[in-house]
Amino acid sequence: MSGITGLNRKHNFVLLVRDAEVVGEALRQALAEAPPEERPGLERAMELVESTAAATEAGLRARWVRSRWSAVGFTGDVTSVAAVRALRKAEPKLSLLAAVQLQKEAVDHPE
């Protein structure tokens, strides 16, 4: 996710769009029809899709928060007030409450 569409001070939620099932089905179909030389790559891709599909929503939001911190160059303590400021710098429309909640998820779900 590169940003949050429709985010404003009244709507402080992060909507996750997950299409791992669709991608997984396409990979299963490709794997069923693949020649032997393509199978190892498709099998690896399938493993990646399955591991991503198993991620929790909180884990995905935490990953998004870390990507936003990275985008603004934040490398400090993720439990700090500076981390909340950096998140709001990356996403100016994010309310303080939403930023704190997202920060907590990032702390609770380290990489």
Word description of this protein:
The chain is mainly α and 111 residues long. The longest helix has 15 residues, at 39-53. It contains five helices and no strands. The protein has helices spanning 20-33, 39-53, 57-71, 81-90, 96-108. It is elongated, with a radius of gyration of 18 Å. It is 60% helix and 0% strand. Helix 1 packs antiparallel against helix 2, helix 3 (57-71) crosses helix 4 (81-90) and helix 4 (81-90) crosses helix 5.
Q: Which helices and strands appear, and what pairs or packs with what?
A:
Elements (H helix, E strand, L loop, with lengths): L19 H14 L5 H15 L3 H15 L9 H10 L5 H13 L3
Helix pairs in contact: 1-2, 3-4, 3-5, 4-5
Summarize the structure.
The protein is mainly alpha-helical and 111 residues long. The chain has helices at 20-33, 39-53, 57-71, 81-90, 96-108.
What is the first-to-last residue Cα distance? Answer: 16 Å
Q: Please indicate the percent range of residues in DSSP E strands (runs of 2 or more).
A: under 5%
Average pLDDT level: 85
Shape: elongated
Instruction: Give the helix level as a range of percent.
Output: 55-70%
How big is the Rg?
A: 18 Å
Count of DSSP E strands? 0
In terms of per-residue confidence, which ranges show pLDDT below 50 for 5 or more consecutive residues?
none
How is the biggest beta sheet arranged?
Answer: none
How many helices? The count is 5
In sequence order, what are the helices and strands, one letter per element? Answer: HHHHH
* Structural class label: mainly alpha
